UniProtKB/TrEMBL annotation:
Keywords: Glycosyltransferase, Transferase. It holds the Pfam family Pribosyltran. It comes from Amycolatopsis cihanbeyliensis. The keyword Transferase applies. Coiled coil: none annotated. Residues 10-151 form the Phosphoribosyltransferase domain. PANTHER family: HYPOXANTHINE PHOSPHORIBOSYLTRANSFERASE (PTHR43363), HYPOXANTHINE-GUANINE PHOSPHORIBOSYLTRANSFERASE (PTHR43363:SF1). This is Phosphoribosyltransferase domain-containing protein. InterPro entries: PRTase-like, PRTase_dom.
């Protein structure tokens, strides 16, 4: 039995990120900075940064997924952790590829909440069961998603780079 999947190509990602940027702009939100959730959110944040003319990009490394539909019990923030002083009083747009369980987005949103003026989330995909409803969503799906940046296996498998489940 083959599991149905959503297939995001690089070309479709280009369109999706522009549509997300339009949602943000048309909604009147003008972020001071974009906080990407690494690794999938790096692509989204970069594309949104260019489309929204926001040069101030930050990264928060969070490990949660360890394989296809395999994850740790809880998301883990990996160093370096963003300095709260750099976020103080800012309007922050959190960018990620997918809001699946919502655990990662909740962790990052909660991290920001007391430091920033406002925090909103933008994702390419949102699952119906997520615990975090994002303000900006390109597409909703209940399928597993093949992203162009993570579908193929690594060229090199490095010891100690991935947390075991």
């Amino acid at each position: 039995m083959t599991v149905e999947r959503d297939e995001l190509t690089w070309e479709l990602f280009g369109s999706a990120s522009r549509q997300l940027a339009r949602q943000v702009a048309e909604g009147g939100f003008e972020p001071d900075l974009i906080l990407s959730i690494a690794r999938g959110g790096l692509f989204v944040a970069g594309a949104l940064g260019y489309a929204l003319d926001v040069k101030n990009l930050h990264v928060m490394n969070v490990e949660f997924y360890t394989g296809v539909d395999q994850r740790l019990d809880l998301p883990v923030v990996l160093p370096p952790v963003p300095n709260a002083v750099d976020l103080a009083g800012a309007k922050v747009l959190v960018a990620d590829d997918v809001a699946d369980t919502g655990a990662t987005l909740k962790l990052v949103r909660d991290f920001c909440a007391e430091q920033v003026a406002e925090v909103r989330c933008a994702v390419v995909y949102e699952k119906p069961w997520t615990t975090v409803s994002c303000e900006y969503v390109w597409r909703r799906t209940d399928r597993w998603i093949n992203f162009p940046w993570s579908t193929l296996p690594p060229v090199v498998r490095r010891e100690g780079q991935v947390l075991d489940a």
